[in-house]
Write a structure and sequence with these properties.
Elements: H1 2-52, E1 58-64, E2 67-73, E3 79-86, E4 89-90, E5 93-94, E6 97-101, E7 107-112
Length: 126
Protein backbone atom coordinates (compact mmCIF):
# COMPACT_ATOMS: atom_id res chain seq x y z
CA UNK A 1 0.00 0.00 0.00
CA UNK A 2 2.81 2.38 0.90
CA UNK A 3 4.54 1.58 -2.39
CA UNK A 4 1.42 2.58 -4.31
CA UNK A 5 1.29 5.96 -2.53
CA UNK A 6 5.03 6.56 -3.10
CA UNK A 7 4.69 5.61 -6.74
CA UNK A 8 1.66 7.90 -7.18
CA UNK A 9 3.49 10.84 -5.55
CA UNK A 10 6.55 10.16 -7.70
CA UNK A 11 4.46 10.16 -10.89
CA UNK A 12 2.68 13.33 -9.74
CA UNK A 13 5.99 15.10 -9.13
CA UNK A 14 7.32 14.02 -12.54
CA UNK A 15 4.13 15.30 -14.16
CA UNK A 16 4.43 18.59 -12.26
CA UNK A 17 8.04 19.07 -13.43
CA UNK A 18 7.05 18.32 -17.03
CA UNK A 19 4.16 20.82 -16.84
CA UNK A 20 6.40 23.54 -15.35
CA UNK A 21 9.00 23.02 -18.09
CA UNK A 22 6.31 23.06 -20.80
CA UNK A 23 4.75 26.24 -19.36
CA UNK A 24 8.14 27.96 -19.19
CA UNK A 25 8.92 26.96 -22.78
CA UNK A 26 5.53 28.21 -23.96
CA UNK A 27 6.02 31.53 -22.15
CA UNK A 28 9.44 31.94 -23.77
CA UNK A 29 8.09 31.20 -27.25
CA UNK A 30 5.24 33.67 -26.67
CA UNK A 31 7.62 36.42 -25.58
CA UNK A 32 9.70 35.92 -28.73
CA UNK A 33 6.81 35.64 -31.19
CA UNK A 34 4.59 38.38 -29.73
CA UNK A 35 7.00 41.05 -31.00
CA UNK A 36 6.98 39.53 -34.48
CA UNK A 37 3.19 39.17 -34.46
CA UNK A 38 2.74 42.81 -33.41
CA UNK A 39 5.10 43.97 -36.18
CA UNK A 40 3.23 41.87 -38.76
CA UNK A 41 -0.12 43.26 -37.54
CA UNK A 42 1.18 46.83 -37.96
CA UNK A 43 2.43 46.06 -41.49
CA UNK A 44 -0.91 44.45 -42.36
CA UNK A 45 -2.71 47.54 -41.03
CA UNK A 46 -0.55 49.81 -43.22
CA UNK A 47 -1.21 47.59 -46.24
CA UNK A 48 -4.97 47.67 -45.61
CA UNK A 49 -4.85 51.46 -45.46
CA UNK A 50 -3.06 51.55 -48.84
CA UNK A 51 -5.55 49.02 -50.26
CA UNK A 52 -8.47 51.22 -49.23
CA UNK A 53 -6.95 54.59 -50.24
CA UNK A 54 -4.13 53.75 -52.68
CA UNK A 55 -3.26 57.36 -53.62
CA UNK A 56 -2.60 58.42 -50.03
CA UNK A 57 1.01 59.09 -49.07
CA UNK A 58 0.28 59.99 -45.45
CA UNK A 59 -2.31 58.89 -42.91
CA UNK A 60 -3.47 60.68 -39.77
CA UNK A 61 -5.62 59.28 -36.98
CA UNK A 62 -8.42 61.49 -35.62
CA UNK A 63 -11.02 61.01 -32.91
CA UNK A 64 -14.34 62.45 -34.00
CA UNK A 65 -17.36 62.13 -31.71
CA UNK A 66 -15.61 59.38 -29.74
CA UNK A 67 -14.89 57.27 -32.83
CA UNK A 68 -11.48 56.75 -34.40
CA UNK A 69 -11.09 57.67 -38.06
CA UNK A 70 -8.01 57.57 -40.24
CA UNK A 71 -7.67 60.34 -42.81
CA UNK A 72 -5.58 59.86 -45.96
CA UNK A 73 -3.66 62.72 -47.57
CA UNK A 74 -2.07 62.93 -51.01
CA UNK A 75 1.38 64.34 -51.93
CA UNK A 76 -0.03 67.89 -51.91
CA UNK A 77 -1.32 67.33 -48.34
CA UNK A 78 -4.92 67.38 -49.50
CA UNK A 79 -7.35 65.05 -47.72
CA UNK A 80 -8.41 62.44 -50.27
CA UNK A 81 -10.40 60.06 -48.10
CA UNK A 82 -11.16 58.59 -44.74
CA UNK A 83 -11.00 55.13 -43.26
CA UNK A 84 -13.07 53.60 -40.51
CA UNK A 85 -13.43 50.12 -39.14
CA UNK A 86 -16.63 48.22 -38.56
CA UNK A 87 -17.42 44.81 -37.11
CA UNK A 88 -20.90 43.64 -38.12
CA UNK A 89 -22.14 40.46 -36.50
CA UNK A 90 -21.66 37.30 -38.49
CA UNK A 91 -22.89 33.80 -37.78
CA UNK A 92 -19.74 32.83 -35.87
CA UNK A 93 -18.90 36.23 -34.40
CA UNK A 94 -17.90 39.67 -35.62
CA UNK A 95 -16.48 40.12 -39.13
CA UNK A 96 -13.91 42.90 -39.05
CA UNK A 97 -13.91 45.17 -42.08
CA UNK A 98 -12.08 48.34 -43.07
CA UNK A 99 -14.06 50.85 -45.14
CA UNK A 100 -12.61 53.66 -47.23
CA UNK A 101 -14.75 56.74 -47.83
CA UNK A 102 -14.07 59.27 -50.60
CA UNK A 103 -14.41 63.04 -49.96
CA UNK A 104 -17.85 62.97 -51.64
CA UNK A 105 -18.99 60.46 -48.94
CA UNK A 106 -19.12 57.53 -51.36
CA UNK A 107 -17.61 54.20 -50.38
CA UNK A 108 -14.25 53.88 -52.09
CA UNK A 109 -13.30 50.38 -50.96
CA UNK A 110 -14.04 47.68 -48.40
CA UNK A 111 -11.40 45.27 -47.08
CA UNK A 112 -12.45 42.23 -45.07
CA UNK A 113 -10.02 41.17 -42.36
CA UNK A 114 -9.87 37.38 -42.37
CA UNK A 115 -7.41 37.05 -39.46
CA UNK A 116 -10.05 37.49 -36.78
CA UNK A 117 -12.88 35.92 -38.72
CA UNK A 118 -14.52 32.90 -37.11
CA UNK A 119 -17.04 32.14 -39.84
CA UNK A 120 -17.27 28.61 -41.19
CA UNK A 121 -14.69 28.28 -43.99
CA UNK A 122 -16.35 28.32 -47.39
CA UNK A 123 -19.58 29.93 -46.19
CA UNK A 124 -19.64 33.59 -47.08
CA UNK A 125 -15.87 33.83 -47.60
CA UNK A 126 -15.90 33.28 -51.36
Amino acid sequence: MLDIIKNSLKMGMVLLVICVIAAAALAQVYSITSVIIKKNDEETEKKKRKDVIPLAVRFEEKDIDGKRYILGYDAEDKMIGGIFKAAPRGYGGPINITVGVAPDNSIAAVVITKLDQTETPGLGTN
